[in-house]
From TrEMBL:
It comes from the Eukaryota. Residues 582-612 are annotated as: Disordered. The keyword Signal applies. This is Probable glyoxaloxidase 3. Residues 67-453 form the Glyoxal oxidase N-terminal domain. Residues 596-612 have a biased composition (Low complexity). Keywords: Signal. InterPro entries: Gal_Oxase/kelch_b-propeller, Gal_Oxidase_central_sf, Glyoxal_oxidase_N, GO-like_E_set, Ig-like_fold, Ig_E-set. It comes from Pseudozyma flocculosa. Residues 1-20 form the signal peptide. Residues 459-568 form the Galactose oxidase-like Early set domain.
Amino acid sequence: MIKAAAALAALAYTASAVSAATPGGSTVIGSSKVSGMMLFNGAPGKVVILDKTEGNEAQIDGHPAWGEEYDTESNTSRLMRVTTNTFCAGGMSLGNGTWAAFGGNEPVGKDGNQTQPRFSISAPYFDGDGGAGARFYTPCDDGNCDWVEGFKMAVRRWYPTVETLADGTLWIGGGEDYGGYVTDEGQNQPNYEFWPPRGNQAVDMPFLRSTVPVNLYPLAWLMASGKLFVQAGQDAILWDLDSASTYKELPSTTGPMKCYPASAGVAMLPMTPANNYEQEILFCGGVQRPLNEWGNGGGPAYNPLNTPASKVCERLKPEDDNPTWTQDDDLITGRSMGTFVYLPDGKLWFGQGVHMGTAGYSTQDYNKAIGISLGDDPDYQPMVYDPTAPKGSRFSTEGLQPMKVQRMYHSTAILLEDGSVLTSGSNPNADVTFDNAAPYTNTEYRLEQWYPTWYNEARPSQLNITQLAYGGGNFDITLTAKDLSDDIGNIKKTKVAIIRSGFATHGVNFGQRYLELNSTYTANQDGTVGGTLHVANMPPNANIFQPGPAMAFLVVNGIPSKGQHIMVGTGQLGDQRVSAATPLPASQDAPPPQPKQSSKNGSASGKSSDSAAGIVAPGLKAAAFVGAGALALLSIL
Ligand SMILES: [Cu+2]
């Protein structure tokens, strides 16, 4: 009897150990049907995965599938219709909630070979030319919406970067006509264009000519002034989009190469009231080799598999009066293709990638065991980076277990609503491959979810906001004793974080931003634990955090609520109706404990006790996320 009970208990323990989330650990939650070369969080509980054209087993419309929407709560998915070759596209969300994926490759057959005749849509994959492709997806409620194709950019772009602008339209820059390890002058695209198109012509950008050969997926962020910061090779500029000219040449770094295929991990550091929304970019890892060794489209002029990836982290404030590259803490282990993902608490998860070599693949004789991969020795150990920690202690692996699945070339990671990180992909092969001698270089479909150390803590209530304006009125959030973990002291440690998780591909989550809203508080004056958080709208400058979809988290003492999908801005392209910010009331602490007395009339901060609600600027309608996002594709043409 006792024995049976013990056996049962052991069984129960095993079962829960398998299914439960281990803080600091991870779980393989299922498998995608297409390999996760591109990944974004498009709607509550739903991520979209895009692959390149290849021989996935899952079929749609008589050809292999290359797109999928995966439900992270039910672990079910539906295939999506993507027919033009998305290898290696770039993408981002527009200010109206539509997602876009631009560029890629010509039609290919098996093993990525050109179709015969070239550019024909033919067996076995029946894919179309994605070189200048522009594809759009607007999330909807009914599980039926899909990619809409048939639009074209002005030029072909393989490896383009996409950044949202202050009016919610897109900047699409760089890339090359056809694939290659690095850019060749013959097929470089030293230019950019907009979507919706402005005159249907690419605008010349000399910086993308002078940075050949290491300028694919140029690293670009819109800055508070409206200038575009662009980094490629070891150089950097601020670009004036209005005059279409270089506004300022920034110092070059002597540190590692950061652009693809060196593929450093990059992120704009969280913008907070405490740092006055200062914009600082962090670059970690990559590969340090002289410019003349990067070779050409066919492959590198050195053997990357013998080259350890860099540990070096550098920061730059592009709009400082005198911007300088400053050394940050080293990565704990060197990394190419490492990926930063914001966590709602204001720290950054860093994972994925390899210790040796670079992104990309090419047929060489370096190491046949790993097929054609130019990177090796995957790093399974995630780190957490705390930008506010004292120097010397910013990276930590404390309490973090190694991940289970390698994430080499063509892998991705994205933030989920519950504050965990979903990782997908890895496929350093020209086509679906299961027979490399080193199995970790085979095509990978497993999805693995990583859990922050606070994952199982009691969480504050989810916010009930749907839309945020730029400036204008403030709104109140009622904080219960439960939200504050029964400790009134936590009201001082409460914030609202807005995160755009962005469009993940090739080790970069394009468009990723973190902004803490300005806030003050009024603690309950009656001695009970609770109060009101007074929260400002977005700062009155759409360059700081561009319009479009994002998630909002209530964070109390470092523990976040579940993320609420919201719309930042009007939900439409064009003028975002920026207005001056209304000052917040001064914070009011709880009175010091008094001798007990009757307090029938003593309750009350006098603040609204409504549940949290987003207040938007006058003239804006608070719209549900899907409502704001579901607009006719016509409006972006
Ligand atoms: Cu690629």
